[in-house]
Amino acid sequence: MQGSTTSTSTNSNYAKIKAGSSWFDQFRYGSNPWMARYVYAMMFFIVNMLAWAVRDYGHIAFKEMERLNGCKEVKECLGAEGSLRVSLGCFIFYFVMFLSTLGTSKSNQRRESWHSSWWFAKVTMMIALIVMPFFSPPEVISLYGDLAHFGAGVFLLIQLISVISFITWLSDCCQSEKNADRCYVHVMLISTTSYVLCLIGIIMMYIWYTPDILSCRLNIFFITWTLVLLQLMTSVSRHPKVNGGFLTPGLMGLYVVFLCWSAIRSEPPEEMCIREAEHATKEDWLTIISFVVAVLTIVIATFSTGIDSQCFQFRKDNDKQEEDDVPYGYGFFHLVFATGAMYFAMLLISWNSHHSMKKWTIDVGWTSTWVRIVNEWLAVCVYIWMLVAPIIRKWKSSQTGESRV
């Protein structure tokens, strides 16, 4: 009887959601995994904005922080360390959610209900976990800061594979036998536009960030090498054995040029190679807008990557998804948000807990620059490997067949 009652109430809740109820009713009645994604993303955004507020304005709001057990001085729980403390609470929350939802495959499991509902309990848990690190000793926060470097690297790798997977999926979809003739013009238009934008971006970077050839040799190297990588990706994709076309290297070129631009923009504002450096030192409206856009971009990237667990399956299953299967991998979703919390913390402190950051700035410093550059080079290596790997496997299989004969 109890099971039938629970089933009846669950069905009535779904009926209320499908009947066009308000977002608040979905939050209250839910178990709705699609709505849950946005709630988790909103929680992630709020907590990371809190980490930024602690970094920039914590000395005003937390005068009593010196009384906490983990803070010998107010400065220890503010600035970079304060951001790490908030980030630690966010990481623990999503890591606990990862452990508790890992392996959920059917919508009738209890873990599915834990992922998609119980919001009051989870919000309370999030608040408690954010407060708890402020009572932790500085050694714990320092250890988390070291681990966050690794976690942020994992997040960048996951995001990188997700982006490349989406680009290759789009290319395969457009060039399939079903859509090849219909999408031919669209593919050529998108490819041409991508290459034009890549060249414009490279030219503008030469103009903006290399005012002096002698003193800006590093920027010249970054930009020139990006141009070389663009040519390399195109050559490999156009090889007769690969036959990847122009669409994927064009879109990858846009991503690589963006990473190069982000790396150069992350250079310290004192650098003379950045012509707009004098404007970057002031808290003007352009700096604030850039900060807000950067934060929203990170949240959206974390959200979109979290529901893209399919691209990490080494063996693609062709079985049709059943009606009671979960719509996305819950464990992977929370793992991405956990590593995303580490990545956001690294951006706020520029990958260095002893680095002082100016207000309304994010991801500024030489460490940030080199992280972006290495990410760019790694993106090209992963993309080329995805093109070449099938050919290598075919060659090895043919060699094995010949040796058996």
How would you describe the overall organization of this protein?
The chain has 405 residues and is mainly alpha-helical. The relative contact order is 0.13. The protein contains 14 helices and no strands. The radius of gyration is 24 Å and the shape is globular. It starts with a helix and ends with a helix. 70% of the residues lie in helices and 0% in strands. The protein has one domain (31-313, 324-399). It comes from Lithospermum erythrorhizon. This is Protein-binding activity modulator. Pfam families: Serinc (PF03348). One of its GO terms (cellular component) is membrane. InterPro entries: TDE1/TMS.
Largest sheet: none
Oligomer: single chain
Distance between the termini: 66 Å
**CA-based gyration radius:** 24 Å
Q: How many helical stretches? A: 14
Tally of structural domains: 1
Question: Which spans have pLDDT < 50 for at least 5 consecutive residues?
Answer: 1-30, 277-283
Strand tally is 0
Strand content: under 5%
Q: N-to-C SSE series?
A: HHHHHHHHHHHHHH
Helix content: 55-70%
* Average pLDDT taken over every residue: 76
Outline type: globular
What structural class results from the helix and strand content? Answer: mainly alpha
Pfam families: Serinc
Transmembrane segments: 38-55, 86-105, 117-135, 147-171, 183-208, 244-264, 284-307, 328-349, 369-388
Keywords: Membrane, Transmembrane, Transmembrane helix
Subcellular location: Membrane
